[in-house]
C-alpha cells in the first residue's frame, strides 16, 4: 500500500440546518476511523459547500469549523444549484487532496461505504461509484420515476451508471481532467463516465432522509432530468425529424384520398377531421419549436461562458496548509496497483 492519501469529503448544502449537526458527527466519525486504520492521512477533512442557504446552515458550518478540526467550508454568494455547488467543492478540494468523496448532506447515502471507496482507491481505481441496490426507503413515485429516468438515459445512448447519483470517489487526476470540461449545463452523472480511467462500483442500501425535507421536489427533478437528456443526447431532435417525415407522409395520403373522392364525386365534408388535424399538427409544431429552443438556449448559455459559481467566503485554513505538501496518491492508478 502506498503512503496514506489525503481525503476530502465534499458535501453540498442548501438549507440543511436540521440535518447538519448529525452529518458533521457521522462524517467526523468516518474520518477518525479511516485515520485510525491508516487508510487516509491524519490531515483529511470534510468540506461543506453552502449553496446560498437561507437558513442557519452557514452559521453552523462556521461553528463546527471553530470546534472541529475536520470541518472546512465554502460559502457561495448565491444559490447556484446542486451541481454547481458540488463542482465548486470538488475543484477546491482537488488542490490539496489525493482523492475526493462527494456525498449529499441528507445522509440517505450510507457514510459507512466511504471505507469501501478507500479500499478500492488503494487497489488502483481512480473512480468509485456508489450504486443504490435498495431504494425501499424512497416513495413508490420517486423510485419509479428515478429508475425510469436511468433507463431512458441509457436508451438514448448516454453512458450513465444505473441507480448512481453523486455519491462517488474521484482521484486527483480525474478531477484535473474534469476541470477541462468547460460546460455550463452541468450534469456530472453523465460527465464523470466520459473521463475514462479505471473505475468500479460499490453497492449500498439507500436510507431515509435523517431530518429536514427534500430539496428536489417534482418540478426540480423533472428539470434536472430534462437537462441531463438535452445535455448528452440529440435523440429528441432526431425524434422530431422522424415525426415530421411521418406527418408529411400522412398528409400526402390524406391529400390523395381527398383528390380521389373529389374525382369520384364523393361528398368529402371532413370538417371534424380537418379541425383535429390542424390542432394536432399545430401542437406538434409548437412542441418541436420548444424542443429546438431548449437546445438553442443551452448553446446561448454555453457561449456566454459565465462563471458557474461565485465564492463569497472560505473556511479552509485547516486544509490550505497542505497545498505545499506533495500529494501521496498523485501517481497514475497503474502505479498504485
From TrEMBL:
<keyword id="KW-0328">Glycosyltransferase</keyword>
<protein>
    <submittedName>
        <fullName>Glycosyltransferase</fullName>
    </submittedName>
</protein>
<keyword id="KW-0812">Transmembrane</keyword>
<dbReference type="GO" id="GO:0016757">
    <property type="term" value="F:glycosyltransferase activity"/>
</dbReference>
<feature type="transmembrane region" description="Helical">
    <location>
        <begin position="271"/>
        <end position="296"/>
    </location>
</feature>
<dbReference type="GO" id="GO:0005886">
    <property type="term" value="C:plasma membrane"/>
</dbReference>
<feature type="transmembrane region" description="Helical">
    <location>
        <begin position="239"/>
        <end position="259"/>
    </location>
</feature>
<dbReference type="InterPro" id="IPR050256">
    <property type="entry name" value="Glycosyltransferase_2"/>
</dbReference>
<dbReference type="Pfam" id="PF00535">
    <property type="entry name" value="Glycos_transf_2"/>
</dbReference>
<keyword id="KW-1133">Transmembrane helix</keyword>
<dbReference type="InterPro" id="IPR001173">
    <property type="entry name" value="Glyco_trans_2-like"/>
</dbReference>
<keyword id="KW-0472">Membrane</keyword>
<feature type="domain" description="Glycosyltransferase 2-like">
    <location>
        <begin position="8"/>
        <end position="176"/>
    </location>
</feature>
<dbReference type="InterPro" id="IPR029044">
    <property type="entry name" value="Nucleotide-diphossugar_trans"/>
</dbReference>
<keyword id="KW-0808">Transferase</keyword>
